[in-house]
Amino acid sequence: MAKPTLGVFGLTGCAGDQLVILNCEDELLELTELVDIKDFLMASSGNDTSCQLDVALVDGAVLSQRDEDMLKRIRERSRLLVALGTCAVWGGVASLDRNQDRTRLLEDVYGEMGKKYDSLPARALHEVVNVDLSITGCPIEKDQLISAVASLLQGDPPLYPKYPVCTECRMREYNCLLIERGEICCGPLTVAGCQARCPGLNVPCVGCRGPADDANVESAMNMFGEKGIPREEIAAKLRTFAPAWGVNV
Amino acid sequence: MKVLRLPKERLDLFASVLQQFGEVHAPVEQNGKYAFRALSRWSDARLDYPRTILPPKKYFVPPKDTLFQYKEGLGYVPADLAADRRIILFGLHSCDIYGLNILDQVFSGKYDDPYYQARRKNVAIIGVDCIPDEHCFCHSMRADFVDKGFDLFFQDLGDRYLVMVGTALGDDMVLATGSLFEPVTPEDLAEYKQRSSAKRKAFKLHVEIRDLPEIFELEYDSSLWKQVGDRCLSCGACSMVCPTCYCFDVADDVDLGARSGSRSRTWDSCLFSTHAMVAGGENFREGRASRVKFRYYHKQRGFVAEYGRPSCVGCGRCISACPVNIDISQVISQLRGIENATA
Ligand code: SF4
Ligand code: SF4
Ligand code: SF4
Ligand code: SF4
Known about the structure:
The structure holds two protein chains of two kinds. By secondary structure, chain A is of the alpha/beta class. Helix content of chain A is 37%, strand content 11%.
């Protein structure tokens, strides 16, 4: 049986999720034995840019017409399309001010020239095309990527936790920075999978993985409010990674 | 039950003798909170701690527990339970020992769980008494005193301990020290009785559990559940830290190429949105309120019907771990229609 074909693509973003793939040093050889990597610009200069793909991994968000065209083209070429990283899954950092006047934002940053640039308000991949699987994280977790590939090769979707970071934080018996130190920790609203990396290093979670399933934003806002933290401050923090929290100020 | 006394200045000596029975674990300080850890030196042990972040269940049902592995050529490789090292868990409070006795009913009752039982055999339990803080209500849950589930139990009598010997292993530990332990005196007993009744009066939190299953039954549709559900963040903290929350989820980790892999169970919680989801996407407890309610019903009503007592032991961990201050004692009082049961 022919090996499944794979493509890895980057839209607008820091390309950190593609880098995570390349950083899987212990697994890369085995990976290339199992799948045929056809198109991966970051890793190779000899790519087949038009072949059909079984799986496309796409990082970055849609921020320009060029991104949009490229994504639609990838969708046409691929049987499965996987959103890789918080930008692709939720919109990410670039979607922070996506509801503001684009022309004015472009002028603020680039001056007169800004008007000419190809720039659209940031969208997550699923807001443009159908997405078959999402692997969130800023950047993605290596073990979640490997388990996705391993499961997809068996024809199954991978199983990821949908509960919040707090659960992993408690499983690891870390101190709670929110309760014990009154810090703004986004752990109760953020989806687990990182093994509560930041609280484990004594740093509150900033929500880089995006919303947990059924995140109770309203109650968390009230809780922070009772601690004297202004709603706008929490809202700004949550907006950094995902508009999907739907925070109302 | 054999009862002895140990002058406190001899505790260090006893601890050094203990090492021949296994690796000694005890509560140690961790940024102002406490956690059971392997001791590198006995002086790190904090026997006057209020409560640990995680209960001792982590030793018997670890957060993630590999049940078996499979490898090409080898087939199934069961977890090597016999190889688990011997551990002496020093410093459990009554509520936590009671919590383990409750887990025994679940994991060693109708359905024997070999993983749990192997560890239970490998871990010795030494209890110490404690002073209740503002979140403790083990007295209400009848878990402030245990008569089984420990090898030794140390009652603090000021400059000495009254030591209860619970098992033959506990007796071996005592005997291994030569003449470190002494016979109790009438003064010891008087002191013990005085302290025991003082402790009973020291509880600030009270929960009435008589007829509670009936109240729960009657208040199934109470609007309180929606209020609590609106506040709950489904963060799962209360379940993780609970000594008697034992739900787990079983899943396979497949290695690349599927030539090897493992099956493990991971702590789960009825508070999670996916807990009651079944194939096809149907979810029996989709709303947060119904999930919060379920946790209370299982502990205070369902468990009573099945095992004759609530599974809650009143350790107070869920109260101190909840980011939005959902307090089991207050929920119960509100359900009973008593606004403030805190005496
Ligand atoms: S530190 Fe943050 S992630 Fe950890 S339990 Fe507290 S709120 Fe949750
Ligand atoms: S703890 Fe929060 S900010 Fe840190 S890696 Fe995890 S999700 Fe991201
Ligand atoms: S329900 Fe709360 S108080 Fe009761 S045993 Fe569990 S953590 Fe302790
Ligand atoms: S700790 Fe509190 S907020 Fe978190 S799941 Fe439990 S009741 Fe809900």
